[in-house]
Amino acid sequence: MACSLPFTDDEVEALVQKLTDEDMVRQKAILDLAFQFDNARTTKDDLRKAYKKCPSQAYELCDVYLIEKELHQLHLDEEALRETLEEQARDEKEREEKIRQKQDEDEEFMLEFGVKFDSDYESD
Fold it and tell me: Which spans does this entry mark as compositional bias, Basic and acidic residues (predicted)?
């Protein structure tokens, strides 16, 4: 008697593993963003303190310096975020490739040993 479930145990296990991995990647990205946000906040606070220490006649020069420093920090944050997103995309591709390889191996095994697919049982 054929199993009436649309997926095999291995397929369900692979899907659960994929979803778990995706969730872990998302959690890591959220933590990375939180860390970057904290760094940006700390940098902004440092910039405010530095600005307050500037002599009144040097405010314009301080403004230029502080703006450049803040822009540099934003660039660093953007670069870190881009690297995180690229890493996520690579990880996703690797997971999908592993799933495809596993499915190909399963199909090859079934064909080699004459194992029928669930759909073949239903049509008999």
Answer: 86-103
